[in-house]
Amino acid sequence: MAEARPRPSWKRRTSLTVRILAVNIIALGLMAGSLFYLDSYRKQLFEERFKLARAEAEIAASGLAVTPPAERGRLLVQVGQSQNLRLRVYDQRGQLALDSFALGEPGFTLVDPASEGWYERGGRLIDNAMGLILDSPTPDPYREPGVDQVAAWPELAEAARTGKSAVLARAARDDTPMINAAAPVGTSGEMLLVTRNARDLTQSVRDARGTLAIVLGVTLLISIQLSLFLARTIVQPLRALVRAAVRVRLGRDRAVEVPRLPERGDEIGLLARALSDMSVALRRRIDAVESFAADVAHEIKNPLASLRSAVESLEKVKDDDLRAQLTRIAAHDVQRIDRLVTEIAEASRIDAELSRTQFVPVDLHALAKALIRSRDERGENRCSTLRLATHGAGPWDVRGDEAQLARVLENLLDNAVSFSPAGGEVRVLFERDEDRLVLSVLDQGPGIPVQARDKVFDRFHSLRPAEEDFGNHSGLGLAIARTIAEAHDGTLVAADRPDRLQGACLVLSLPALADEEEVE
Known about the structure:
Layout lengths: L8 H5 L2 H17 L5 H28 L3 H15 L2 E5 L5 E4 H4 L14 H17 L19 H9 L3 E6 L5 E9 L4 E8 L1 H52 L16 H48 L5 H37 L3 E4 H15 L6 E6 L6 E4 L1 H18 L5 E9 L2 E7 L34 H11 L3 E5 L9 E7 L3 H5 L1
Parallel strand pairs: 7-9
Antiparallel strand pairs: 1-2, 1-5, 3-4, 4-5, 6-8, 9-10, 10-12, 11-12
Helix pairs in contact: 2-8, 3-8, 8-9, 9-10, 10-13, 11-12, 12-13
């Protein structure tokens, strides 16, 4: 047989509250990972802006190519101010010829990081941290060259070499993007450089990250509160049940009440009520066991005392007749103890046997008929006559354990025969009462007083006939019979004879087998 794998130690040490919080926070942590996917959003924004910068440079270069030289300066200033750009034109020798910033008001102004507030500085730190985590490439810093010419700008050199527009991004001092787009101006050999400080890109990414962070923060707070509420509604009642169960186990307080939580209709409430019912049933079972043990000790003590007295007297008595009498007493006491032990063992095994047995359809009438015939053959009915009678046509089927039901009938017949006078009649009567089968055992003995009708089913309780030898019955027969009847959802009671004649009437009522079960 394979050994059971040990459970991880963290499962043994971690409380349910921590597990609930961990599950919810881990889920939020996975959601927080979406912050990193904003890098792809940033890249997409840059790609779109590069395309726009390339298109702006090509359009501006085309416009300059058809604009008279005297009008170019005004055109550069107008476009730069309206589009927040810086436009520079370089002649065929690669030297700076026109600059929109020198000809008019600048289209944008670079921000000095030292003049920024805490919010902007914090945003820049977050951007740098995200860049390190995501291993994003760091753009080169943007610097104005000492000598502004084509050779100072790699993008201009590439555009001049290929004859196509080129785009390159750098970072300003405040880490905002500086996007340069270079394009040839017609076929004249002149070059155009368009520069944009794309602060809006940085702000868009920061806004997206900030919004997501706020949503995650609020969700985290709500999740923690809901987790704590869930933990309280689950863990606190469970802990109360655990404390009550521990007190019940220790047995220091017999009045321990397991909380039933009647206000809860969920599984916790069902568990609480089940534990409460179980504790009540357990307490009753313990009380019954203690009472049974006390009764057993009392019942065995009497024959043991008689046996000891007889054995001790045997050594002192010299009269053979008296010694023979003492020997008979000792033998009778031994038989009585043996009978007690046997019936006590049977009474102790009943619950265990009934918990394991599988109930099947049993024809109770046929079972009673077989038992009566068997008792007649063994001569166990003494001088009594056993008769079987029915009111109605049946059927007489019940669901149960045939061996246990036979024990009930045997005990009832034993009891009736022992109380019946010589030549008396014991009648076994079968009746149907709607969905129940009623079996009555009637004898012609002295009957059972009304005040004693419940006590006769107590263990070791016995009202024996005066002429019967003492100790022939243990007083467990009817107690065992009632226990088996109740295990079959039935009842066993003492009642008046229906014909009002003298004698006892023990009535066994069991659920009759349903019609559909009989068909099956």
